[in-house]
Amino acid sequence: MPAAAATDHAVRGTPCWVTLLTGDLASAQEFYGAVFGWTFRSGSLGEGFSVALSGGKPVAGLGNVARSMGVGVSWTSYFAVDDADLVAARVRERGGTVAVGPLAVGRGRAVLAADPAGAGFGFWEGAVLPGWRIGSGAAPAWLELRTRDAFAAAIFYGEIFDWIDRPDRCEVIYEDEVVTVRSGGHTVACLRGGAIEEAPDPQIRPRWHVYFRVDDVEKAVEAALAAGGTLVSEPSTSKVGQEATLRDREGGLFTVTLGTSC
User: Fold this and answer.
1) Bridge partner list, 111
2) How much is the pTM?
3) How far apart are CA 127 and CA 109, in angstroms?
4) What is the pLDDT of the chain when averaged over all its residues?
5) What's the rounded Cα separation, in Å, for the pair 17 and 1?
6) Rounded CA gap, 123 and 115, in Å?
7) How far apart are CA 153 and CA 161, in angstroms?
């Protein structure tokens, strides 16, 4: 869930944080510290939560809640909203599922939900960490929704988050069968089709996927394997640069990349 010490507000409907829902906080800290060089500090949400830091700047949250909440280990993307109750109602009205919340957490309210294709995501009502933005500083490089029908997904998220072309909202562009979401001219998320709801492999099922930028993909892969992770896809070069997809010790999926935007 979003980190503690939040003091600012994000543009409504944009990503405002990412959290690893894990079943072993100490093991996750050891793994991601080895791969990315992250350090960790306690958050205000209790001993089961921590904030990952890179160069002293917050990157992501880690929450030891996967087992207690009965959910799989995964990276969860959160979006900023003004009214968690209203957005939760919109999710249900449009065929999605609200799994947890709205739940009071620190000085805000969090919700865990799933879209109609089954991709899990969260949203957050409240203050966020100032300066944290996808693609800048220490934050993840970008977020990508892998789903069956990117256009249908864009309609769902556009309706629940008010993705409309206004200065205070997101701009949504559909081109080359990819939906790109921008805020202030900056890409914050991409939606791609092709995932299958009933696929047995989590790599293929609909999900929000997190890309972390590294200076050397092969070294990051070596560090992940040495720390007990698993290589899902060999390092390869895409139109945005070299990348590789990995699982952490408990199966959480993520990609390391040289790219800066999807």
Assistant:
1) 123
2) 0.87
3) 10
4) 83
5) 8
6) 12
7) 12
